[in-house]
Amino acid sequence: MVVLWLPDGTRGKGPPSGSDRHLFTRSDGSDFLRNGIFIAAYANDRRHNASNDVRKARAENRTERKGSAVQLPAAIRPNLTPADSESASRFLLRAVQLRKVYRSGDAELIVLDGLNLEVALGEIVAIVGPSGAGKSTLLHLLAALDTPTSGTVYFAGKSHDALSDAELADFRNRRVGFVWQRHHLLLDFTAAENVAMPLFVRGVPPGEAQRATRHWLDEVGLAARAHHRAGELSGGEQQRVAIARALGGGPALLLADEPTGDLDEQNAAAVFELMQRLHQAHRLTSILATHNLGLAQRADRILVLEHGILQPPRGAARLETQKGESLG
User: Fold this and answer.
1) Domain of 314?
2) Which of 64-78, 136-150, 181-195, 223-237 comes out lowest in average pLDDT?
3) Is 37 within the bounds of a domain?
4) What is the mean pLDDT of residues 134-147?
5) Count of domains for the chain
6) Sign of the dihedral defined by the CA atoms of residues 150, 156, 157, 161, in that order
7) Least packed by Cβ within 10 Å: which of 16, 32, 59, 186?
8) How far apart are CA 162 and CA 149, in angstroms?
9) Of the segments 5-9, 78-82, 90-94, which one has the largest average pLDDT value?
């Protein structure tokens, strides 16, 4: 059984079909979808989970399957307004004195310890560090998927702390796109349906969601695979669908957590090149966490996460000797 959590904390059965849906989870609480961002695939049984919007889009696709590039609907073009750009001034994203501490009884695990970060508009920043250094934790805090123990994150000059729950939900759905190491696609749904699902959660009409989906699948080179189920795609193709899903809502900020970690060298390079191209073409601001120093060196800037803080690499020689290798 699937349980739908609404913003007021009540529950109802069935899949999300409108913008008022806040949290989607199984009854055991194991997998969930929050504010249009997939944390994990929530179902493999389409009998319970194919929404009315998905079915409507399928019906429209039966009469129009050309998959050509289209004008992106105005409702889901990039969500960085002139006011945002003015408020952001030089930096779109800032983190100030972030601490994240996990406690178990009397024990403390300090993951982030007074971390500071400034990311300029249009910049692509690579964050490297060994496994367990806190890269995923940092990205979760920047995306407002988690809250720091102390410290503040600012987006376009506005603190996350100043946002209401509804405004944070809107931020996660509209302003930020997230790409995970594991694609977390719904394997029993088509590539197009996976890309469209966060738009349905937002309440975008099926026709507009379909046009946006066609646009983004064409952007990632998968227009011809739009109506194949995700489980029928290769690993590289699945990650391309995940990128299209992350960008489908028109975010200003793209966060990628080890997006090439599950891919072979050739596919990893191709996916990274695709992300670079989309970053430039759509004037994104991007933060990439990776073990791969060879790929990281292609970013505008590299920061190393060690001992709970970010710092520049200690000399070009340190990176050069490890180029193409993995940390951790």
Assistant:
1) 57-321
2) 64-78
3) no
4) 94
5) 1
6) negative
7) 59
8) 16
9) 90-94
Domain at 190, CATH number:
3.40.50.300
Both tokens of 73, joined, read: 């609907």
Mean of pLDDT values over 42-71? 39
Any domain includes 302 = yes
Instruction: Dump pLDDT digits (tens) for 257-296.
Output: 988 877 888 888 888 899 999 999 999 999 999 888 888 9
User: How far apart (Å, rounded) are the C-alpha atoms in residues 290 and 284?
Assistant: 18
Q: Is residue 326 part of a domain?
A: no
Model's pTM, two decimal places? 0.71
Tokens for 216?
């983004």
The answer to whether position 15 is within a domain reads no
In single-letter form, the type of residue at position 137 comes to T
